[in-house]
Here is the input.
Amino acid sequence: MTLMEGDYSLSTGTTGRFAKEQADRLLGRLAVQVARTIKSHSAAEVHDLRVAIRRFSNLLVLLKPCFSVKESRKIRRKLKKIMAQAGTVRDHDIALRLVAKLVPSTSNAMASQFRTERKESAETLAVSLKRWLRRNSSAKWREALEVEVAANDFCADAIGVTGRRMLPRMAKEYFRCGKDATHDKARPEELHRFRISSKNFRYTLDLLAPLYGASVNALLQQLKEVQTLLGDVNDCATAQRMVSRHGGGRDILAELKKRQRKKTERFREHWRSAFTSEAVVRRWIENLRDVGGQVRAPRKPPARSVPLAFDAWRSISA
Here is the structure.
């Protein structure tokens, strides 16, 4: 969802204020989703929990100069543990769906085993989430992120200036990585890393979308399409790992590999048709430089003004 609600003093408000307000909002959403996931361990709720964690973690990485380094690191470390537990549940959901869809006649025993393990994993996740609530983690984290850090130019700058500096550079790096991930000899690991980068680039653009208004919606939709295609590829890889771990038959693995090849080729065709044109890349960069026509960033900003290297996103759990 594009974040249009609220008054964030867009373009002219400071980056520090924006960071604090967004941290409060995203932490609130995370707390709500934790409660929902405790109540229902369904695939949809677990998925939404993972998204809430990613969005909050992405903010802490993206605008890290605005938060206490020590407290931010502690929070991300705890979120990583919950994310891993939720990921185990999610892996079972993926395996159950694909195995039943591809080879239903031979998957009954394996599906039963997956369901048993999935239930156990969901219960483990629920224990961690209840502990998180019992410790009043939401309030403690909110307080920790309010700790004042040493004044710096990054936090003092208008958020419009920060967005204008960061997003065009990220877009350039994103397209470069996309080109690397779509060549014919790209390894599955490269596609996986690019999938994570696609998610976090989308979350970043979504976070800063209020700076641009409705003009950014088309860009977000394009990122969502790429993310969906890469997700289909990753689901096949996840199901293969699960099936192999449980001694699955060759027929199941063969079907999963066949599906993965088709999904990979579909992604490559989509990327090459939609994103390889220099005109497309140039249009993206130009759009992201235009923060509502309200703000102009310095021509040569100091290096510290862009604290996030593209690879730093990979530290956020998949």
Residues 6 and 304 are 29 Å apart (CA to CA).
